[in-house]
């Protein structure tokens, strides 16, 4: 056991402050250098999200921001965490590849066994790979490669359901799909091809459908902590549907991050197992 390993008793999430956040390049349709983010407002929105997470019992750990890496704030993409294993990202766009060594160093220093995705495949971490029960649902085509997902599933010994993403606005799986519990999730159907939808209906019997206007407000990009779901503002229909199923909901404005194509979930990386992951109950990190 690594001496720097911290005890994981409460839900633990990795976040990275937006000290150097900005819209410096365009790698998804949300981003436009002509629509810059407001740094002071971004900092305020990030702190408010962090405060809500802490309020619902999360222990937030932080990765130091790095100048020149504006998207390091989106820690969901750093890696896929499975028990004590962290499958590091290999970013498709060169603009984000500089994040990899920082993610790797932090995870290794905090007790994770860091492994790389198979040679030659792109993989964008928990942004594209989400556990629902004992199954890993994995988005591909726009950022991550399908082939990589299958190989990562074999490395972890888990079943993988690859889901093809067809709408460039929903380029990561976590922009259009969010597991709530084993067998239950939130999703926006317009982001998937027909085969992906059939596969999803089969593995996730209880699906809450998000309307297009709320999907555009990043309703699916939710952070689930216990029975509480945290999203951006502008998702009242989803919140009502969740409340009817017994979930508590919290909303907080994340407009500055939406300009980069991200929202609540993208700004977080759950280190002890997402709520919907059945392996979480067996204990993270051994
Ligand atoms: N600007 C970032 C990118 O395009 C946003 C990443 C959002 N992260 C996520 N997990 N969806 O890569």
Description of the structure:
The chain is 24% helix and 21% strand. The longest helix has 17 residues, at 39-55. It has one domain (12-282): L-arginine/glycine Amidinotransferase, Chain A. With 286 residues, it is of the alpha/beta class. It has helices at residues 39-55, 94-97, 100-109, 146-156, 194-203, 212-216, 236-244, 255-258; strands at 12-15, 59-62, 79-82, 85-88, 113-115, 129-132, 135-140, 159-164, 177-181, 184-187, 206-209, 223-225, 228-231, 248-251, 269-270. The strands form 5 sheets. A 3-stranded mixed beta sheet has the order 2-1-15, covered by helices on one side. The protein has 8 helices and 15 strands. It binds arginine. Residues 27-28, 31, 71, 74, 76-77, 96, 127, 172, 174-175, 260-262, 266 line the site of arginine (ARG).
Number of domains: 1
Radius of gyration: 17 Å
CATH class: Alpha Beta
- Portion in beta strands: 15-25%
Major beta-sheet overview: 3 strands, mixed
The count of helical stretches stands at 8
**Annotated CATH architecture:** 5-stranded Propeller
First-residue to last-residue Cα separation: 10 Å
| Category from helices, strands and their pairing | alpha/beta
